Queue: 3 jobs
Job 1
Amino acid sequence: MSTFTRSSTSTSTGSTSDGKNGTMNATTTETNRRPRLSGMTWLVWRQHRAAFWTILAATALSVAWIVYQRGQLVDFLDGYGYPGKSLDEAGGRFQQYNDAFSFVSTGLQAIPILLGVFLGAPLIAGDLENGTAKLVAAQSMSRTRWLATKLALAGLVVVVSTGVLSAVFGWWWNPVKSEATAVMDWTSGAAFNTTGPVPVALTLFSVFGGVAIGVVLRRTLAAMVVTFGFTVVLQLVWGYFLLSLGNVVTVTTNKGVTGENAYPSLPHDAHEIDQSYVTGSGDLVSWGTCSESQTDAARQVCLDKADVVGWSVDYLPMSQMNAMQWFGASILFALTAGVVAFLFLGRKRLV
């Protein structure tokens, strides 16, 4: 009788005894020590596990492909003799690598839109539409904790996936980063929005913006449609103001405009924004001034009459890229924080 009692007790506590020295079964103990999701975290993960696992699996596959492509790129560069030889002279031999960059960068730029529509918009709108939110509100768990868990898990998946992709894509691009004409201009969305903190910030704002839209509309399909429009407009507005994130550098000359070495020398990786003529009094006039002159001599007479003495060129050096990305990302993170505050302040609507 005592043996049966001891075995039953051991089983009920999740352990087994060997009946001789009372030692704990190592396998059962190890199982009990494994970390497990529980409570609201488990519920939210299980509810959205298909979307979360799809995102993480797609990230893993993309990383593997990028790593392979970088190996191919490095082998080509070593065999070609870069950087001793310019890639501008490679011609069609480099085209396949350029196409790979364009393909991947296009996919990375679409991530904020895709995750905003298919993860952010249905995250809470689906619960409001099918009544799951009312069921959660009827339990002992508060709406604040439910909302916080939803946003935290979604945000964690977004940060991990976009952060890893951003780092790996930047690592792939780094060997040819200064080749703006042959590969990607660093001020273009193909490079600026796919490296550093920008893709993380853009995607977080898109996803949480989609969540807010879903809370307001309370219908999944409507929220997805509106979120698609929101994320597309966000990309367009972001691209319009992108260059304003940097500090424009201006260089001027006074050696005329047509002679040899008259045009100012810019850094190899600089992005030129604007150019004008400079007069003797320091005023700027359009570079199209005197363009209607029929001959070079007539043009020179026109320029002398306008007192043009040189060039003024505005540009952004590539050395500002990192600072511009963090400045822009900080703005997006602040906007995301505002959306999160709106969601928590309006949590009474989550029923």
Job 2
Amino acid sequence: MDMNTIEAVVRTTDPAQWRDGDAWLAGGTVLFSYGSYAFGPEPLKRLLDLGDAGWEPATVTDDGIELSATCTIAQLYSLPGSPEVSGRTWPALDLVRPCCDSFVASFKVWNMSTVGGNLCTSLPAGPMTSLCAGLDGTATILAPGGASRTVPVADFVTGDAANCLAPGELLRSVHLPASALSSRVAFRRLSLSNLGRSGALLVGRLDGGTSFVLTVTAATKRPVQLRFDALPDADRLAESIGAAIPADLYHDDIHGLPAWRRDMTYRLAEEIRAELAAPEGEPGLRVSGDFWPPAHPGTDARQRSAQQEGA
């Protein structure tokens, strides 16, 4: 941790207090690891600490779920089993724990990293981007001067470590609509190494049993979302992916070459399409990668792996 240029830590949630040389601080797991020069050649001077914001981690209503930017990954992971969502017919909650698992993080990161921090870091492999974009999440952004605006999470991340936030703006929360939470979902993730960073992470959603939404993340520099009025056949899906994702949009780093990410996008997308085309719970469907199907309580990693190999 190299933060020896910090002159003050200000506890605030007011964007009006932001000035050049500031950075918003939530869990700090990325900010502290990047150091004082995280955002350019000029060092950071102050941290605007959200630790005392007092924002409710998750608020559940009939309209959906409001996740505060300061909701930790550990708090989010506990949500599907909480009394707040008990009795609600929201199959898409099955995505929450696989996306949290995609951090493959230590318990320290698990309990400090936040939903908002992961979105604002805006790495292609950010699993909170995958979850929130895949469920048509809408981000609420606070600006200096008391203004606010909303933006779909699918449009929030604009590139590798780039997003739509203007200087001083603060991500307040993400709303996941009940309409998306009520959908049948499928999830695929692949990494080049055991417990490695996601090289491709795709989320599929079947809305109302008919319309199909595919969200591609990790393989691409920013989220790419494809929508169909009905579940497409394999050829139409492949053609649509080719039209929506140009070659230069596939990410290139140590966690996967663009050509591999492209091939895995086509492969995982077809697996998702086939899963959602089949009757729910039908055995024998191919499952590449890890964390899916969701493990039942008490199912350890080896049992989950055996389930997938038998699929």
Job 3
Amino acid sequence: MNSTQTAPGPLSGKIALVAGATRGAGRAMAVELGRAGATVYVTGRTTREHVSEVGRASETIEGTADLVTGAGGTGIAVPTDHLDPARVEALVGRIDDEQGRLDILVNDIWGGDTHVEWDKKMWEHDLDKGLRVLRLGVETHIVTSRFALPLLIRNPGGLVVEVTDGTEEYNRRYRKPYYYDLAKAAPLRMARALAEELTEYGCTAVCLTPGWLRSEAMLDTYFKVTEENWLDGTEQNPHFAISETPTYVGRALAALAADPDVARFNGQSLSSGGLAKEYGFTDVDGSRPDAWRYLMEVDQESPTADVTGYR
């Protein structure tokens, strides 16, 4: 190897599909898989020509693919509505034709926030909006796994990652409202079920959650800050101090995917903060926020926040 060459990444030669990679955790996970050397198919509904019902034109799947390639991998953008079985089947068929294998499947499809009526009781919540939340957060994952898993199980060592909001321990409490609670509980159970069904093929399924994610919308819409001055958001909610960048969960995923003993986690609920302790990575600022432990142990009604010992 001459001085201008770099060593191949730990995921060099691996083929990944990150379903729901337009922004937030999905985008960061795709980028970090690329940084580790993977070829990453990134999907979503917002492209440079079309904006999904989420309504954000600032992030596109082409933009994500460019970031993956810029990080050292190969990013391939494929516009996909994961509620359309024919589109998903065609997506997987393309991966099979072009690569002949699939090593990592990440089900990060969401986009339901715009339909959630956060302060409504179940019987008060608009039914069509509630069912749309479940379709976006549950049905999309099912459709994607239905078509992607036959390709993934061709080779032992495949990894399926269901992405949700909240660890299994935290989500034992009610994550109101009703439809949101169901949508975020389902991936935990999906991972448990797939773990049972994939074992005989030498493949692994887990559920992964970021902590309090400083997504694009969390920064510019909810807290009206930037990544550079995000701490100003603690003036609105002091507990925002435990938040983390999307890169943190991306690093968690990359560490999992590169772990030859990942099967020890089969069926488990995992978090970015917990895996940081396991693998030794940090967030971009060098800290290791453990948001779900914080949210379990600290009084969230308190007007002050102390993240000492939690990041």
